[in-house]
Design the sequence.
């Protein structure tokens, strides 16, 4: 069963991978963008367990659900297709993509456990 260090590591790795995939070599502050996307992936990877702490076996509710995983996928697609006009918008887009990818990784890891994820959870 994935624990917080595994979720943090996977979220961080996805943040780095997202930076590499979206690398814009024309950008002046690649190092800063890479660091920001790495941190965004890290926080995305641990956020579900911050919102719904793993203090008992049935902690997975709404924010650990297939509904949120699907919503994250839809948001990722919309962010990927967004054509930002300013540098600030481009940076926000990259950070949000890395964050959502980290969050999605957390849910995918949890979905592969025997307890899996609820469809919607308790609202």
Sequence:
């Amino acid at each position: 069963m994935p624990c917080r260090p595994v979720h943090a590591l996977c979220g961080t790795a996805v943040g780095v991978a997202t930076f590499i995939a979206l690398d814009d070599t024309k950008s002046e502050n690649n190092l800063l963008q890479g660091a920001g996307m790495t941190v965004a992936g890290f926080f995305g990877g641990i956020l579900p367990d911050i919102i719904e702490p793993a203090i008992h076996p049935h902690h997975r509710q709404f924010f650990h659900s297939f509904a949120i995983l699907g919503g994250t996928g839809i948001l990722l697609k919309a962010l990927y297709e967004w054509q930002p006009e300013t540098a600030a918008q481009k940076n926000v887009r990259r950070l949000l993509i890395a964050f959502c990818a980290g969050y999605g990784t957390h849910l995918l890891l949890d979905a592969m456990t025997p307890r899996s994820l609820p469809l919607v959870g308790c609202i």
